[in-house]
Specification:
By secondary structure, this protein is mostly helical. It has one domain. The chain has 4 helices and no strands.
């Protein structure tokens, strides 16, 4: 049995119990929108800035338990969405590095091969 937090509401407790799941679903859907070029990088960055500012200045200090949970979900999901372009940039850099290493290895092989 869980203790009920002082000042919490039924909807706020429901959101708190499910906030991680809701956050991950929102981030997954918006991440797919980014991958399919419906959402662009600067839109995602702007939305994340707005979400964190909303959480920091409004939701975090608000009396409404539900609004605090909604603000947390909003901020966390938008920050997770920013991980998608970062991960794509890292993967792209790794792929370019692998291709460059393969090209260097091929050049070494070509230049060190003795003509027959």
């Amino acid at each position: 049995m869980h203790a009920i937090e002082h000042g919490s509401s039924r909807s706020g407790r429901w959101l708190r119990e499910r906030r991680l799941r809701i956050t991950l679903w929102i981030a997954a859907i918006e991440g797919l929108l980014y991958l399919f070029h419906v959402l662009h990088l600067w839109e995602a960055v702007g939305l994340a800035v707005i979400a964190v500012a909303f959480w920091w200045y409004v939701a975090r200090v608000h009396r409404s338990f539900s609004l605090r949970q909604i603000g947390w979900i909003f901020a966390a999901s938008q920050l997770l969405v920013l991980c998608v372009p970062i991960a794509l940039a890292v993967l792209k850099a790794v792929a370019i590095g692998v291709i460059a290493l393969l090209a260097i290895a091929a050049l070494i092989f070509l230049f060190t091969e003795r003509p027959s």
